[in-house]
Amino acid sequence: MTKRTVALLGGTAMWLAGTAANAQELNALVWCDHTDDALIKPFEEEFGVTVNVREYEGTGAALALLEQSRPGDWDVLVIDGIDVFRAVESGLLAALPEDELPTADFFPEIVMAENNTLDGVTYAVTEKFGYNTISYNSEKVDPADMQDLSTVWSDKYAGRISIYDYYLPVMGLAAIAEGLSTADIDAGSLDTIGPVLSQMRSSAASVAGVVAAQTALATGEVDIVVGGGEWLTAVLAEEQPELTWTIPDQGAVRWTQSIGVLADSEQPDLALEFVKYIVSPEGQARLATSACFWGMPANAAAGDILSEEQKSVLRWDEQTDYLARTQLYPAPDADLDVEMQDLWLDTLSQ
Amino acid sequence: MNVAKGTKLGWGFVAPALLWTLVFFVLPLLVMGAMSFATLEGRSLIWGFHLDNYIELATRAYLWRAILVSLEITLTVTVVSVVLAYPLAAIIAFRVPREWQRLALLLAILPFWTSYVVRSYAWLLVLAREGLVNQTLINLGLIAEPITLANTRFATVTGFVHFFVMLLTLTIYANLVQLSPNYRRAAMDLGANAFQTFRHVILPLTLPGIATGAFLTFVLCIGDYVTPQVLGGNNELTIPQVIMVQLGRRADFPLASALAIVMMLIVTLAYLASARWLRLDRV
Fold it and tell me: Which of B30, B121, B171, B273 has a CA that sits 20 to 30 A from residue A132's CA?
């Protein structure tokens, strides 16, 4: 080996070592609203790090990915509020220092200690919430009809509705329409929910994911999205103000998402700083108005940073009423989950 | 070079491909097969030899419907694509001057260069009630009210056909250009007209190209998730959609694996049915 080769190899090794030392990276498994540069860049600049974000489809997929990863591959997890316990049961989440989280400033209903805390230990913190309710085109349907869930999926609007493609919120809405509480849904409730789903299905033109439902509503393919909400129409508010949403008289379903630090993270301090940034008023305002989808920030102090226009789109002033009239997603155990999913697939294939 | 050394050298050349196949095909297949006999207890994965997933497959009506819908869509797409691709390939092979054929093929496969997902959403806009097709039909006075095209099986088949016609055009074209013009001349000399020449000479000789393209179309179509999801509006469940539902929230990998095994069996049957004409080396 010549001296030149040795020098080249040595130089390369030093460069690689230097790069590894300087390029501190944080890996976060997230929903698409965390992929917005406007949210991530300020944190990267403040801490001089790179945040790698990866989106996932559903809690099951995320947990499977984490279980198959090497310890330390991931630092931060964003997860459905009702599924925090699944990550805790799997030993995936680290304890968070409760006194460093600004939960005192949160909307009280959204702190959700019963979901984020186990045996007095906090494992996650709620970061965003919103509603799975009824989105509609106010120029095409009678807004008064949208206040009654049974009218929404009645024959009057047959062929003009799309159903959001996620069984938990839609079955929650069906339960609410029948006067059932989402927290009380059990195997016996499915006999009541099933016919409502069938009625919904028979009136629906499509069962659509986020983008497809937005496209269908924006292009006039459908006039109503069952399971929609601010997350569906807020990004379209400027160009199509006629696309709006409401909480019907019977109520609606509330979704929440939480964020936590993974137990195997090799940089828990930096991961915690990221969590603290996300739930800070600044981070919350950016997260609430993320390019992917809008939603209410858990931290009410974000209201000082959001513009009046943004708050208007989010319906900031009506949150007290909305929070009182909505119920959390159904949170089935494993067996009930199987039955609910089977009922959903049966309904889809009708 | 002696025989032993030659054999070693041969294995040396084959080893990388063999290793690749073992690691990225055989091993995952074995894992998937084993997984299909595992089961979920609560949310915990239990390995073993359980037939629960296959019993579930046999007893759930929506799974049978998903298999049936997948087959119906796949067969329709394959037949329509062949019918459309064959004349296109023939025009390029026989009517377009040799020096322009490359450009013609390039133009034929141009849509491949765009994102598959974007293309599906583009079709959704074209087929929407206020989209290009409906507006054109209304402007021509052919219909008075928009008709429902998006979120239907028609939309799913249209999206698939747009994609697979290009693939089939390539495989059939590759077959057609290899045919010596003497076959056609001989048939004409023997008194055959153009249709008889096609029916008894050209078509049988191009069956390998058709079978190869059709088989690839079948395999890709039956395993596709995006098009039925976006263009079909989830109005009919296909096997990949059911697999996705199993994985998304519940991470039911055992049932998803059993479904994948069933899908693989269907593809194997399709292969056996077309094996006589298949010439995958021509792709």
Answer: B121
Q: For residue A212, what are the domain limits? A: 130-254+327-348
**Subunit contact A207:B129, Cβ cutoff 8 A:** no
Does the pLDDT at position A197 exceed 50?
yes
Q: Name the residue with tokens 């931290």.
A: A299
> Phi, psi (5° rounding) for residue A255?
-105, 150
**Percent of chain B whose pLDDT exceeds 90:** 58
Of residues B60, B130, B235, nearest to A206 (C-beta): B235
Q: ipTM of the predicted structure? A: 0.77
Rounded-to-integer distance, Cα A37 and Cα A44, Å: 10
Residues A230 and A193 in one domain: yes
- Domain count of the fold of chain B: 1
- pLDDT of A5: 52
What are the distances in angstroms from CA B270 to CA B22, B25, B260, B278? 24, 20, 15, 11
Q: What is the CATH number of the domain that holds B252?
A: 1.10.3720.10
CA distance A252 to A152: 13
Q: Indicate yes or no: CB of A219 within 8 angstroms of CB of B42.
A: no
pLDDT band at B275 (very low <50, low <70, confident <90, very high): confident
Number of domain units in chain A = 2
Q: Give the pTM.
A: 0.82
| B176 CA to centre of own chain | 21
Average pLDDT, chain A: 91
Residue B54's SS3 state is: helix
A146 in the same domain as A178? yes
Domain that holds residue B137: 60-282
If asked whether residues A92 and A118 sit together in one domain, one would say: yes
* Pair A241, A146 in one domain: yes
Using 50, 70 and 90 to split pLDDT, how confident is the model at B251? confident
- By Cβ distance, the residue of A60, A86, A208 closest to B233 is A208
| Closest-CA distance of chain A to residue B248, Å | 4
pLDDT level of residue A11 (50, 70, 90 thresholds): low
Which has the closest alpha carbon to A269: A137, A96, A44, A136? A96
Q: Does any domain span residue A16?
A: no
Q: Residues A224, A337: one domain?
A: yes
The closest of A162, A172, A166, A208 to A193, measured between CA atoms, is A172
Residues 18-77 in B contacting A (C-alpha not used; CB under 8 Å): 40, 42-43, 60-62, 65-66, 69
The answer to whether position A92 is within a domain reads yes
Q: Find residue A29's DSSP bridge partners.
A: A54, A77
Mean pLDDT of the region B51-63:
90
The C-alpha of A219 sits at a distance from chain B's nearest C-alpha, in angstroms, of: 7
pLDDT per position as a tens digit, A237-255: 888 999 999 999 999 999 9
pLDDT in tens, A62-75: 988 898 888 899 99
Within-domain flag for A56: yes
In a domain, B100, yes or no: yes
Closest Cα of chain B to A234: distance in Å?
Answer: 21
Residues A156-165: tens digit of each pLDDT: 999 999 999 9
Determine whether the interchain pair A337/B250 forms a contact, defined as Cβ–Cβ distance below 8 Å.
Answer: yes
- For the cut 80, the answer to whether the pLDDT of residue B32 exceeds it is yes
Q: Are residues A162 and A278 in the same domain?
A: no
Q: Using CA coordinates, name the residue in chain A closest to B230.
A: A212
Whether residues B233 and A219 touch (CB distance < 8 A) is answered with no
Q: What is the DSSP letter of A94?
A: P
Based on the fold, state whether residues A57 and A171 are members of the same structural domain.
no
Same domain, A162 and A194: yes
The Cα A108–Cα B9 span in angstroms is: 72
- The CATH number assigned to the domain holding A54 equals 3.40.190.10
